[in-house]
Amino acid sequence: MNYDQSRIRNFCIIAHIDHGKSTLADRILEKTGVMKLRDMTDQVLDSMELERERGITIKSKAVRMPYTAKDGQEYVLNLIDTPGHVDFTYEVSRALAACEGAILVVDASQGIEAQTLANVYMALEHDLEIRPVVNKIDLPSAQPEVVKQEIEDEIGIDCEGCPLVSAKQGIGIDDVLEDIVKNVPAPNDDVDAPLQALIFDSYYDNYRGAISSVRLKAGRVKVGDRIRMMAGNREFDVTEVGAYLPLGYSPREELCAGEVGYIAASIKDIADIHVGDTITLANNPAAQPLPGYKPVLPMVYCGIYPADGADYDSLRDALEKLRLNDAALSYEPETSVALGYGFRCGFLGLLHMEIIQERLEREFDLDLVTTAPSVVYKVIKTDGTTQFIDNPTNLPPVQEIDWMEEPCVDAQVITPQDYVGAIMELCQDKRGTFKDMKYIEGGRVLLNYDLPLNEVIYDFFDQLKSRTRGYASFDYELKGYVRSDLVKLDMLLNGEQCDALSIIVHRDRAYPRGRSIAEKLKEAIPRQLFEIPIQAAIGGKVIARETVKALRKDVLAKCYGGDISRKKKLLEKQKEGKKRMRQVGSVAVPSEAFMAVLKMD
Amino acid sequence: MIEFMKPLSLYYHVPFCARKCAYCDFASYPGREGEMRQYFDRLLTEIRRWSVLTDFGLLSDRFYVKTVFIGGGTPTLVDASCIGEILDHSRFIASFADDIEITVEGNPGTLTPEKLAVYRRAGVNRLSLGAQSFDDCLLKFLGRIHNAAQIGEAVRMAREAGFENLNLDLMYALPGQSMAQWRDTLDAAIALDVPHISAYSLIVEDGTPMAARVASGEVILPDDDTVNAMQREAIERLSKAGYGRYEISNYAKPGFECRHNLTYWQRGDYLGLGCAAHSMLDNCRFHNPDSLDEYLAGARMMDFQRLNDSDILEETVMLGTRMSQGIDLSLFKNVDNRRLDRLVASGLIELDNGYLRLTTRGMELQNAVILELLEVLGC
Fold it and tell me: Is B11–A530 a contact, with Cβ atoms under 8 angstroms apart?
């Protein structure tokens, strides 16, 4: 089909978790024929094993679909998938910026939920045409008319002619496609202006190098062009442009304004591609980059070590490979007395951290030991210099510290009215400062707090979820550093300090945290030949103590005649167990213990 | 000639029993008595195979037989003439030492004066009896076929037949067993004045009826402290009665230590024949199949493994620390003395004249101590 902007529709799908976003995407792919039924595995767009298992979308993708509408005209539909978690808010906003419309999927029996609203607001911020779709109408508990009314009342979107579908059963998919063609505006971009391509995603392909997923907002780009990354300020020669099909690439001669696709340019390092950056032509550059670029900064750090020291090289290779697909991941080597050689890794947030850990363990079959997550603290020293600390071990001695500052976030919680009290209590517990409270549509409240990031990464999400039965949604933005009374909390095992267990906490929190970590360690450390005192200390002063009692009995009564194989097997098992332990002085600490102290109740 | 030769221990397995005990997961096959003759024919053939030139050369050129142990199963269940045949054939593997120790293992309920007389004539000079307990309720619970009275009866019968070197196996840490019951059993065994007593704490093996009963909560095992207390009770009572603890679970009057079992722990050469029997010859380990069917079908010498120097050191620690004599420290070249001293200071090991041995407390924790020792001794 020839290039005709009026026949292009760029859209995304937004939904509360579990309202059927991925299933609807699958049906659309199937209906437009880009996927044959036999190629379909459930949830094609979520191709990473982990994504499918967790039912979340981690990286965004885009698929181009030809569609012949009922008016007899041929259209090109570009479905841009968006990640669904607060850690990836920035990536979501870039994906939305690549669209003109958004399909809002609402569950016919659940109705509007917290995330529905949060998504709608974000789409509205990007001036997207929002097209509601009521899904799961096949369920016995479905009340499509009630839900339609709810959407009209609470969000203020007209639901006249809104498609009623069952993505699972394949009902009403045609209506959705027709609705997109009719109501999502075509792009209206200037194809003759200098190139402006918005990068909304990047990843690494073994044959093509680092690849940018782009939406052209102006101009055109073809193979052989020399392109420039406007924020990254690097230049490359284009080796391939094209569109995405669900199962691969569809190379084309050129991409033009209004289109969605990819640009490959033999880029070796994924770090040269920044999501949100604008690609232009080197010899005919755009005057301005597209708005909204923000460099990605890691917010949360933790140490990642191989459980078996011999796996250090494998861990480094694995991190290198993951970073090729995830420019937001950063890492550098570090050493710990307790854990040996490993890496200090930076993440966008806690979920990002968990996902990377899981991918390392699952896709690369590595056993890991992970230290408590930490934020980056600012230390103003008595000699007037400033130092940034992302690892508690590197904190200078107390006498060299004039004062310390910690990162603070501007947090927004949207919640049904009933939970306001619970959330205020939680934010208070987390050293939050109340800023503002607003009533919004549908009996919901928007709470605004300043919170120390350090408290947010601790167990804020879990607490928020449990205290609001999952109804509240949460978003935050880094605000800056504030002065705070922070101390380093050390853990001593049998009198020896374990560097991997040190954390930086607010002085008021130190005592309960120390107690709680000591208790967790007591549970996690198995009985050994000696009694093991566990102590929590601040600057040498012990504030909590627990004891792991010594083993009582561990012996095989009988060595079965000349058959020593059972004894040998037991010894091998014990050695294997010991290999999974870290020696801290005279104490063997299982890998799980380092994780256990992170999981607080 | 004999002083140039190495000692060899022979083990023969008899996989037949009147009934399977509730805790037993050894190779024993009650109900297959009909295959006894066939089994012994196969066993005698196997003995003859080791009497001629083998992969290990002609054993009689290098070895003399120091001990023979006929274990099971219940060897005393089978026709006594089979025991005689085995011993007669054994002399062709290598010549018997003058002071050879020949043990037959058995169950108190299966002994008769006639059988004992046959053993005696065949050269058997030691009997090991599975007494287990002197409490009839506990014996029933364990699934044994004998009662307490039959133990004394068996000892008397054995003595009348001329056997002085007798062992009684006892068990403790049984579900529901009280300290008083254990004391009574110890006292009853001591009163019989046998020169050797083994006291094993119950090991619940997967797949046994006992394991099922424990898993279902029908019976409850005593806690570690109780088990340790029972063991210490045994050490104390037996020591007062003149029995020295020479291995974790074995006690003997001076000179009556079981020389056959010492071979295993001291890593001497031994050849095990019959179903499920294990061997170590010239630092090679191998064994016959556990399954009676496979053995009868001709399977032999499985899992052949040649031990290297580090295997040997590891085994030396693993087995040597079971004995009160301990292990010879001069065998270990990379000892971490600081950590060794810590183990001494914590009362887990003792150093004596170049030997390292576990203390009473160290033996209670043998598994964990050897794990530490392997590192400390640089294995």
Answer: no
